């Protein structure tokens, strides 16, 4: 549009220069100059208006961070909230022209580079980051997108980061009500499996699963009645909660079978904890004994919850067999 106006202006100007006494040509030239000025002013105001609105939105939000990098992974844009977040949780101040990888931990840097490289291939996508900083778990929804120039060539990557921590915590709180065992108020198996996936996403060094049940519970239940049996299950659940770390997920799988999911706790420590529970239960009125199995592995073992369960359950079965042989 602007080019057509310029060409038209040149033609009219040449005609007017050759015949400046022509009234119509003079008026046309004046009108064209006025129109051009108005058009350029409108274009400038429109573009800058959009920039001002976008800048206002990005800088005023307390939940939205924005950064962009070029083909060499150097920052080319940052909003103030992103700078504040980086300073608070990662201990550095990002600046235009710097590469973010040098300020991040190895795993965080690798993950960010993988996401940027994916966007540089022309893919727009979202990812969820679970950040454990200063004793708090944060949930960030990231939107990565390639940046194109006017020739549709990729020249960088932009990332919008939404803090969805409160939303995620509310979801988890609602899930807790859904995934709670009605008798013991412990978690059930469905929640345990979700917690297992979350621990894997957090990339804890150790994931440990304990499976435990009450020996001869059916006989006790038949002899003393279901009410007494229910009280024993509640007592067992309370004992497990008492000796396990606050971060442990204690769940009732069904009947008298319970499970404990531990993150960052190695096998020897887990075995010591369940032994404390075993000793406590033996001191009760019914002098109950328990059988248990423990399995521990790393988050990157490529094993699912069902694999952990099978291995821990198999160890519990062997524990029971050794007890019968001793008798």
TrEMBL record:
InterPro entries in UniProt: Diguanylate_Cyclase (IPR050469), GGDEF_dom (IPR000160), Nucleotide_cyclase (IPR029787), PAS (IPR000014), PAS-assoc_C (IPR000700), PAS-like_dom_sf (IPR035965), PAS_4 (IPR013656), Rev_trsase/Diguanyl_cyclase (IPR043128)
Protein name (record): PAS domain S-box-containing protein/diguanylate cyclase (GGDEF) domain-containing protein
Transmembrane in keyword set: yes
Keywords, in A-Z order: Membrane, Transmembrane, Transmembrane helix
Transmembrane segments: 27-44
Segments forming domain PAC: 124-176
GO molecular function, one term: diguanylate cyclase activity
NCBIfam families in the cross-refs: GGDEF (TIGR00254), sensory_box (TIGR00229)
Recorded superkingdom: Bacteria
PROSITE patterns the UniProt entry points to: GGDEF, PAC
Domain GGDEF: 205-327
């Amino acid at each position: 549009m602007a080019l057509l106006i310029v060409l038209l202006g040149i033609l009219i100007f040449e005609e007017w220069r050759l015949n400046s006494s022509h009234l119509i040509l003079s008026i046309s030239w004046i009108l064209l100059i006025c129109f051009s000025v108005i058009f350029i002013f409108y274009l400038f105001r429109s573009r800058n208006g959009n920039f001002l609105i976008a800048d206002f939105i990005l800088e005023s939000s307390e939940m939205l961070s924005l950064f962009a990098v070029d083909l060499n992974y150097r920052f080319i844009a940052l909003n103030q909230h992103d700078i504040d977040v980086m300073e608070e949780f990662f201990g550095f101040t990002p600046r235009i022209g710097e590469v973010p990888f040098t300020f991040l931990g190895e795993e965080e840097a690798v993950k960010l580079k993988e996401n940027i490289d994916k966007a540089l291939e022309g893919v727009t996508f979202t990812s969820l980051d679970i950040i454990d900083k200063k004793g708090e778990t944060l949930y960030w929804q990231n939107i990565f997108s390639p940046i194109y120039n006017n020739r549709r060539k990729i020249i960088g990557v932009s990332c919008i980061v939404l803090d969805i921590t409160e939303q995620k915590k509310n979801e988890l709180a609602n899930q807790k009500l859904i995934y709670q065992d009605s008798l013991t108020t412990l978690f059930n198996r469905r929640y345990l499996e979700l917690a297992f996936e979350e621990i894997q996403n957090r990339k804890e060094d150790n994931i440990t699963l304990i499976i435990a049940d009450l020996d001869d519970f059916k006989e006790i239940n038949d002899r003393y009645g279901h009410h007494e049996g229910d009280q024993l299950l509640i007592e067992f659940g309370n004992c497990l909660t008492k000796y396990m770390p606050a971060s442990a997920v204690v769940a009732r799988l069904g009947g008298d079978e319970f499970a404990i999911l531990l993150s960052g706790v190695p096998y020897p420590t887990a075995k010591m904890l369940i032994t404390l529970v075993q000793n406590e239960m033996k001191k009760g009125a019914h002098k109950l004994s328990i059988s248990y199995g423990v399995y521990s592995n790393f988050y990157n073992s490529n094993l699912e919850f069902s694999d952990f369960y099978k291995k821990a359950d198999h160890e519990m079965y062997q524990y029971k067999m050794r007890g019968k042989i001793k008798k």
